[in-house]
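Hello again,

I reread your note about wanting to compare the complex against the isolated chains. To keep things tidy I'm splitting this into two emails, and this first one only covers the full assembly. Below are the input lines as submitted, including protein chains and any nucleic acid or small-molecule components. They are followed by the predicted structure of everything together. The single-chain runs will come separately.
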Amino acid sequence: MNFTLAKIRSFSTSPVANVQQDANGDAMTIVNVENVYKAFGTQQVLNGVSLTVKPGETRAVLGRSGTGKSVLLRLIVGLQAPDSGTVRVFGQNIAGLSIDQLGPIRKRMGFLFQHAALYDSLNVAENVAFPLRRHRADMARSEQNDRVRLVLSEVGMEDHAAKMPADLSGGMQKRIGLARALVLNPELLLLDEPTAGLDPMGSAEINDLILKLQQEHQMAFIVVTHDMHSARTIANRLTLLNKGCVVIDGSFEELQDSSIEFVREFLQHS
Amino acid sequence: MPIFTPLGEFTNDFFQWFGSLGIFAWNIARSACTRPFEGRELVRQLDEVGSKSLPLVALAGSAIGVVLAMQARQSLTQFGAKSLFPSAIVYSVVQEMGPIITGLVVSGRVGAGIGAELASMKVSEQIDALEVSAVSPYGFLAAPRILACILMMPLLTVAADFCALLMGWFANALSEPMSLHRFIDSGFSGATLSTFLPPTFKTAVFGLIVGLISCFQGMTTTGGAEGVGRAATKSVVLASLFVILADVVLVKFILVVFPL
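Full-complex prediction:
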């Protein structure tokens, strides 16, 4: 992949410097999840989960299947509401906000779904252009097209612009999903299993892209993954969930040094 | 008593379904009145609902016209009222058969299509992806489809009426020659605008029912491929049922407001 991130940086929907600062001038958290509980019927999925994400930070959320990792992402993006606890994104409590009220917050986020969730009636270029067409009416059509080409080249898919999603492999769909998430130049990128289903080279390319975006753009990431290698490569901080609870929250070294049995077991099997 | 538990659950589900449908309709009404208006999507849906349903509606209308002509001719002859044949065909087609057949045909074709399409988008997270992109799925997906159903249903009804009358005359002319001019003249004698407009425009309500129920079933489905199939089936069954029930109410309403 050819990463021309200086070009990505030159495009902005909302200034990254817009992140709130506290009285000492320190950057405040972009995401602040506090003591969140969520159940579906009788099944308690999240049990008092708390975590924070600061600008430029990449946080990996790890855990076994069914521990509520994807639900946590859906709470942060406002697709679901917590039963109790607060979810603050860009300083605003998003619980109870309507779709219209969530709009300005969501424009500052990108979301890569586990199965990409591309619009199957639109081709690749139209999929990537969709957020631009909706939210950047101030941009000329030629500028929008240039932006789409640029983002597609970032994910190595510039030669597939005219294809329909059904004609692409799972890995290619994921790259297009990532391009669509990046096209508005978000301040926060939420990735649900970005390397699942990809071959080792594809995984490495996605990891490299995330690293470069993080380093050169100060974009914050929350990455839900099973892939410990990927988490170790891209994340500053890791959160390990088990049965809806945070088992440990720290750097990879802190996980390695942990004496908690579940952590040791998880690392051993990863 | 054990019998009360299923009854209670059914009652609970029944009111929950109506409550959810009401909230869904309110969200669509709000989104439909908020910018940006989805003009391009509306035009696409007008084509999808209107021109693509036209052949089916025309065929159903023609068949109804032929059947009505055969039945009415025999019955009226038996009672010595053959001279009333053109009026019987015109009034029964325009006032009831055309609208209800159009409503049922559209609820089958369009209801299943919308239900399956939106359910497929729901289970593949495309609707979530729209929402995450700060685009209201109510305004972008549901409102244009419902509006297209409301606008196209009366036009399709006119087409069904036209085909039914034409084929009714043709079927009759095969056994007893009668000019089309005479058939029309005799059939429409004594008719006024209020004879034809209310029954035709009542189908806009059918359109609202078909669009709303199929969008609701599609956008609230759960599960994978099974959920898509379930949504399509429920869309057709419920839309057809509510079209028939609405027809009962609307016929009474029209008879009260526009007496013959």
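For quick reference: Residues 4-257 of chain B form one domain.

B.
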